[in-house]
Amino acid sequence: MRILAVSGSLRPGSFNSALLRAAAEAAPEGAEVELWTGLAELPPYDEALDAGGPPEPVRRLRRDWAAADAILFATPEYNGSVPGGLKNAIDWASRPKSEAVLRNKPVAVVGASQGQFGALWAQQDLQRILGIAGARVVRGELPVPRAHERFDGEGRLLDEQLAQQLRQRLSALVAEAEGEPPGPLPLAAAAQSVAA
Ligand code: FNR
Predict the structure, then answer these.
(1) What pTM, to 2 d.p., does this model score?
(2) Using an 8 Å Cβ cutoff, are 133 and 45 in contact?
(3) Taking CA atoms, which of 24, 47, 58, 132 is between 20 and 30 Å from 93?
């Protein structure tokens, strides 16, 4: 089972990226967690650019995300929500609608901040956005407050309880990915979805 790990932070010393590296180490047996980089290369979403044939960084995003069995997102919180760069990646991954790589993709979210709420609002918004994009969202948050106290100078996790929680989130994500994908929509719901 290949799980792609996407950090919403571009910062070299990012606690969210460190959280994903810790998740890779805490992964349950049979799950391989691989960090994805590529967020910084994406242009801002542009429908005209998409229609004319998107540039390589977008094609790479769509290739990589499509090939993953599931995706784990770690989001910082910027002004009470998801950082723009991460939202932008999700916008690219949500189109073209009929073959969007996020459609039916099992996903889960975690998040870290240096404040006391652990990017809780950003994680809630991220789940909402991913759900709208058609992903199968494993509901729930894993807020990591005061992130600067949870890692050593090399970005290694100091908190065994947090490692356990990461393993639990990954196990839930694996269970979702191993479950049956939803069948075709009932006719009335399908009509609504096309109209949307
Ligand atoms: C922040 N930060 C922040 N923290 C928070 O808990 N709630 C918030 O609304 C914000 N807003 C915010 C806006 C902007 C523009 C920046 C740059 C930062 C602080 C943020 O959580 C902190 O910098 C984290 O360390 C960012 O995550 P990474 O980069 O360590 O993964």
Answers:
(1) 0.93
(2) no
(3) 24
With 70 as the cut, is the pLDDT of residue 194 above it? no
Token digits for 104?
Answer: 């039916």
Provide the token pair at 46.
């542009």
79 pocket-lining for ligand 1 (C-beta < 6 Å): yes
Label residue 117 by pLDDT band (50, 70, 90).
very high
CA distance 149 to 62: 35
187 CA from centroid of ligand 1 (Å): 44
Residue 156 CB partners (closer than 8 Å, separation 6+)? 18, 22
For residue range 57-114, what is the model confidence (pLDDT) as tens digits? 999 999 999 999 999 999 999 999 999 999 999 999 999 999 999 999 999 999 999 9
Tell me how far the alpha carbon of residue 9 lies from the centroid of ligand 1, in angstroms: 9
97 alpha carbon to ligand 1 midpoint, in Å?
31
Q: Give distance in angstroms: CA of 83 to centre of ligand 1.
A: 9
Indicate if ligand 1 lies below 6 Å from the C-beta of 16. yes
User: Tokens 């916008």 sit at which residue?
Assistant: 91
